[in-house]
Amino acid sequence: MNKIKISAIISLLFLFSSCAAYFNQPLQVSKARLGENTSQNKILKDILPVTPTIVGVYKFRDQTGQYKLVENGSSWSTAITQGGTSILLKSLEDSKWFTAIERENVSNLLNERQIIRSTRQEYSKGNKKKEQISSIPPLLFAGVLLEGGVVSYDSNIITGGSGARYFGAGGSVEYREDRITVYLRAVSTSNGQILKTVYTSKTILSQGISANLFRYVNLKRLLEVETGVTRNEPAQLAVKEAIDKAVETLIVEGVIDGLWKPQGGEPVVQALKERYEKEKEDANSRVLYDRKLEDRRGKTAVSVTAGTSHISGDYSNPKGKLGTSLAYKFYFNKPNLNLNLGLGYFQLENEGAFKDDFVSFDINLEYDVLPYDNFTPFLYAGLGTISNTNLDNPEFKVQYGLGVEYLATNNIGIKLFGEQNVLMTDDFDGLIRGKRDDFYWKVGLGLNFYIGKPYNKVKSVLFE
C-alpha cells in the first residue's frame, strides 16, 4: 500500500505542478459575458490623435485556406475565423485613432438609403418643402482604405512533451504550438499609394496534461485511476490580438512618418518613437520559436570551477577527490568559438594503492552551441600536461568534454561540465597492466565571469 500511495502522489504532483486550469474545470453552465481584452500592454498609452482619420474596410478575411486538423479523416471547418473584418473594425474603434465607415456591406446601406428616400418622397407629396423632406445627409467617404488579411496559419510549428512511469503510476505533458500571420496596409484613396504596410504574428498554444495509476492492489483486484486536462488557446482571440497589434503598429509607424498627428506635438512623437524602437530591437532579436537572440557574453572571461576527479588506471577501487581550477578564455571573431587556458589542482586516489596531488595545465578549443541564448550546451577539446605538485615527471594528455551553461546575468554564467583526460602513458599510477593508457574523469560546477562588451553580431537564424 505504501508503494501505491507513493505512486499516486507522484502522479498528482506531476499533474498539479503544471496546470492551474485543472482547478478551474467547467462543471456548470456559464452565462454570457463581455469579450476578453487581449491587448494588455500597449505602446499607445493615453496618446490620442489631433483628428481621427476616416477609414474604410471592404474586406479583411482569412486568406490561408487552412482547415482544422483532425486525427482521422478531414474536416471542412476552417482553422481561422471568417470574421476578420468585424474584428478589425472593433480594433479601429477601440484605438480612437480612426473613424471607420461601413463598406463591407455597403450594398445593404445603399438599399436602405434608397428606401428612406422613396418613403419620404411618397409621404411628402403636396408639401412645398418636398426637396428638404426627401433629402438625407450624404455618406462619408474614406481618405484611407485598410486592406490585408490573415495570410498564414502554420500548424504544429513545434510539438513536444515529457512523461514518466514507474510501478504502474505515471504522467505526461504534451504541447503543440501553431502560428498565425497578419498583414495590414493603408492605401490612399486620392492616388492609390500604399502609405504603410505592417506585419504581426501570434502563436496559438495547446497543452495536454495527464496522470494515471494502474496497479493490482490484491488478487483479482485492480486499481485504475486517470485524470488530466487539456487547454487550447482560442484561435479567435489569437486573431484578435494579432489584429490589435497590427492596428497599433500601423498607428505608431504612421505617426513616426507623419501620416497622422498625435496630441502633444513633436515631444509625443519622439517619446513614441523611442518606445517603438525598443520594441523593434526586441522583436529583431527574436526568432521563430520566440527565442531571444542577444549578444550576452563578453569577449573574454575568467572561469572558476570545483569538482571531483576519478582515476581509471590499473588499480581498483578509485575514489572521487575534490579539486579546483582557474581558467581564462577569449573569443575569436565568431562569438561561439573561444580558446581556453586553464590551471588546475586536484587529487587522484585508488583506495589502499595509489594517492597523490596533481596540478595540470590545459589548452582547450571550446564551442558554444547557442551563443546568443542565456542557456547553451558547449563542447571542448584540447591538449595539456599533468604533474605532481613538485612538478616532477610531467606527462602529456588529451582532454575533451561537454557541459551546459546558464547566464544568471549577462556577465555571470553558471556551468556544469564533465570531461575525460587521456594520458599518454600506462605507467601514470606506477603500474603497467594491459594495453590501455591510464585516464581520469572530472565532473564539476563553476562560474564564468565575462569581461568586456560582446561582439554585437547577432544572427537571426530561423532554425538553429
Automatic annotation (TrEMBL):
PROSITE patterns: PROKAR_LIPOPROTEIN. InterPro entries: Curli_assmbl/transp-comp_CsgG, OMP/PagP_B-barrel. It comes from Lutibacter oricola. This is Curli production assembly/transport component CsgG. Coiled coil: none annotated. Residues 1-20 form the signal peptide. Pfam families: CsgG. GO terms for cellular component: outer membrane-bounded periplasmic space. It comes from the Bacteria. Keywords: Cell membrane, Lipoprotein, Membrane, Palmitate, Signal.
